[in-house]
Amino acid sequence: MIFGVVGSKVVAARPAKLIKLLLPIFIGFLVSIVGQSSVPLVANALYFGTGYNAAVAGNAGGGNQNGVNACATDMVAVGVGLTVNGSSPGFGVYCRAIGSDGQLVAQDQSTASNTTAVGGGSNKVFCPAGKVVTGISFIIWSNVAIRCATPPSLSDNSALIWFTATTSTPASTNCSANGIVAGFFTRTGAWTDAIGAYCVPFNLNTLTYNVNGGGGTAPASQTQTVPAQTLTVSSSYTGTRTGFHFDGWNTQANGYGTDYATGSSVRPIGATTLYAKWISTITYDGNTNSGGSVPNSTAAVSSAASTILAPNDGSSVNPKDPLVKTGFNFAGWNTRADGAGTSYVASNPPLVNETPYMWFDAANFDDTTNAWTDSSGNSRSIPGTAVTSATAGSIRGNPTKVTFTGFDVNGLPKSFPIVQGATTDGIVIGNGALTNYTFCHVARYTGATKDRIFAGTTGNWLSGFWTGATGVAYHEGWITASTGTNDLYWKIQCDTGGSRSSLRSDGVLKSSVSTNTTGLPANISINLQGSRSAPTGLSDWAVAEFVIYDSVLSEDKIKEIEERLNRKYKVGLFTPSIHTYNYASTGDITLYAQWNSTITYDGNGQTSASSTVPVPTIAKGTAANTTLANAGTMVKTGYTFGGWNTQADGSGTNYASGLTTYQSAGNVTLYAKWTRTITYNSNGANSGSPERASDVFVNSTTPTISTFPTVGTMVRTGYTFAGWSTTT
Hints:
This protein is mainly beta.
C-alpha cells in the first residue's frame, strides 16, 4: 500500500502496467473504509482539545476528503490494523481510555480484545504497554507501522514498530507535538488515494478560584504548562465571610463536590473552577423540652438550599433520646424560641434500619490483589483469587480500580472511585442463595459491547442491564419489559425478589410483574453470565457501589437508598422524594425546637350537624399569635354563640370568637359557650325598676327562684309583688 508516494523511487520502480492493475484494488480498499461510520471533528471532551487531521500519507493532491472515523470520547489509539488484497480489505485503529492523569486507564493492550476497534484489519500492530500511537506509516499494499510515545509528556517517540520488519521507505501520517492518534480519515478520488491520522492534543487547562460570597480577592488563576500537570491549590486567600468559616475549596458552589485543601494537589480536567467552601454550624436547642436530648449539631457546607437539618433523634446522647415536651408535639425547628420566626421541617429519621447482607463500595477494592472488602460488617468480602475452573475462583481477567471523572446532570464536575472491566473481566460476588432480597447498584456500560452486567453464574437471572438496554430485569422470567434506555450513563437501580418482585431505575418503577417469587441465586456476578470460566452475555462495564439485603424492603426504604446513592454520586436523573433538604444557611445559628399544639373544638350541645364544629387549630409555638376559630355555621337553638371556654359548663377561661392573640399552653379542648338572656318586664308598675333588667345564662344553666332579681324599686298601686312569670 503506497498511500500517495507519487514520484518516489518506490513508485517509479514499478511497471506502469502493475500500477494500473493494482490501483482499482487500492481504490476499492479505501472505498470500503469510507463506508464505515464517520464522525465530525470534535473536541475529545475532558482531556483533549479540538481534534485535527494530520497530513495524509503521501497524497499527491486532489480527490475528496472523507469524514473522520474516531475513537470514542477520551479514548486514543494504541494500535492499528491493516488488511490488503483480501476479500474484505480494511484499515482501523484500536482504542483505549485515557485517565485524568493523562495516562492509559489500563496498560494491557497486546490484543484487539483488550481494546475498542474503530474499523480494523488482519495485520495488527500495537504499542508497548502504557504507550499510545502518535503516527502511522505504510508500505505499498503490504505493511503498516506505528510510532509510539508515553502520555502525557509524549517525549519519547519510538522508532517505527512494523507489523513485518522492513527497510523500505514508508509514507507516514504523523501527529504534531502534544498530539495522539485518535482515529483516521481517507482521501479518495485522486490518482492515488490516501489515509491520514486524526489527532487530538492534550488540553492545557486553567484553574480559577471563586470566593463564593466571601470577601477579599480570589487567588490568581493557574494554567498547566504541560499536559495533565498537577497544580498546587493556592494558599493566598485571606478573605472572610460573616457567620461562616473558610474550609478550603470545592468543585461545586454548594460545597457538595470534591474538597481541596489549600496547598493540596489538583489536576484540572477541562476549565476548572474551585469555590471557597464556607462552613457554618447549626446548633439545636430543646426549647423548654420536658425530656430527651437535642440532636448533634449540623455543619452546613454552603449557603445553598441543600443542607440536611437534623431529625429529632436525640443523637447527642447514647442511647439516643428524642426531645419531648408534655402537651406539645415536635414540629421541626424555628429561628425563634416562641415559634414566631422561620420554620424548617426536620429531616425524617432514617427509614432503613436493616443491616446489609453484603455491601461493596469501589473505594474498598484492592487494585493490587483484586480483593474487595465487604462494608456490611458481615465479613463477606470477595477474595482476589483468580478463576481457574467453572467452580473455583472469584476474579476473571483483571478488573481495575480507577477514578471516574466527569460532570453531573447540572454540568458540574464530579469524581469517585469505580471498579471497571472489559469483556474479559468479571467478578463472582459470592453471596448465598436468598429467598427474599433487595439489591441496589450504581453501574453503567462503558464501551461498545453491552449485554449483562449483574448476572447469575448459573440459571438465567439478570438485574438492570441486558443487550444494551438499562432498566430491565429477568428473574427466570421478565419482570420488566425487555427493552430499555441504551446509553453509557450511570444508573441507580434497585431490584427485589421473593415475596415481591420489582425493579426501580433512576427513581422510576420499571417492573410490571410483582408476583415473581424467584429469590437471589447463589454466586451472582459482575459480567459472568452462566459460568465463571466461560461466560456469555459479556459487557464493557463499570461499578461504583452495590448493596444486598436479605429481605424485601418497602418501597419507601428503597427510595431512601436511592436518595443516598443519588446524593453520593450525583448521577441520577431524578429528584428524591423521601426526605426534604431545603435549609439555606445564613451563617452560624441556633435553631429552636418548634413545639406545636392542637386546639380541638367541642360544639358543646350544638343542634346543628357535627360537621359544623370547626376543625382543630394548630398553634405554632407559644407566641401570642394563634387565631382561634369562630362559630361558622354551628348553632344551638335558643342560644347565642358567645365564644370559647376551657370548661364545658363555661366556668373556665373565656376566649373570644376569632381571637388573634391566643397564646398556647399546650394541647387543649375549647368548648362552645352558648348563652341565653332573660329580660325582666315591670308589667304595669307605676314607678321604679327591678333589681336588674336582665340575666344571661351560660350553656344549659337552669334559672331558679333564688337566681331571679328582687322587686327592686318597682311600685304598683293596689298590688303586692309576687315574683316573675312568663305571661302577663
